[in-house]
Structures are given as C-alpha cells and as structure tokens.
Fold this sequence. Notes:
alpha/beta, 5-stranded parallel sheet
Amino acid sequence: KIKEYQKKIYELTGQPVSDAGAKFSGVMGGANIKRVLIAEPNSRVLEYLKEVLEGFGYETAVASNGGKALEVVRENPPDLLITEITLPDIDGIELLKGLRKEEKTSGMPVLISTSREEEEVRKLLEKDTGISGFIIKPFHVKKLLRKIGELDLRI
C-alpha cells in the first residue's frame, strides 16, 4: 500500500518520497483524521484540495463560505477543518471562535490555509484563536499532507 501512495505523491508532485516519508506525510490515512471539511471561497482551490485529499484516502466535505462550513460541522463534525481566513459571510477566525465554544467541536483540529504573510498568521496564533496550524498559499501537496500528518499525531 505504501508503494501505491508513493506513486500518487510522485504523480502529483514530481518528487519521490521514501517509505517513511509516505507514512509520516499523512497519506497512510492516519488513525485519527479520516474526514476533512475544506472551507475555501475559491472554487478552483476547493476542487483541487478535495481531489488531492480524496486521492489520498480522506473523506471530504466542502463549503465555499463560513455559514455553510458551520452548518456542515454541526451536522457531522469532521476530524479536521481546513479553512481559508477570508471566507464570505463568516471569516475563518470567527468560524473558529464559534466552533471552540461548542462542546463537540471545541477540540477539533483546524488548519488555516491562507495567502497572508506568515508573520500575520503567527500573530493570530499568539492571540490564542485556537488555530492548530497553518499553511501559506501557494503550497506543495507534500507540505499539506505533512501538516495533516503532524496534526494527526497530536490527536
């Protein structure tokens, strides 16, 4: 199965990955993160992330705005939320604050995906917004998978 994932990574990235790298990157479908909600206003980015994550065995749900993301989370909480900060109607930070107040979603890992400067995102982290991690756009598939793998190890 590892060889299968290594081939997928190579096809998507053009870069080879070792057996250990495939396991650590999260593509082995970690023990804890299986269902991912992607909240992203850009439809091309949303579809790309959905395709990549499903290609690596994750079940996905999608939302193009904060209100829809909140609705999806309340109906069937995912194991991980990947959200853009600048969502229409409810931005990613406000969405996160709302989720942290609800018992069943208070501990859900949240990965912020953004094109903002890293320093700006680090300041948000310092404000204790409940962000589990972040990734700066544009990013490489391997980096996204590694971030998910790291979050999976923390659960």
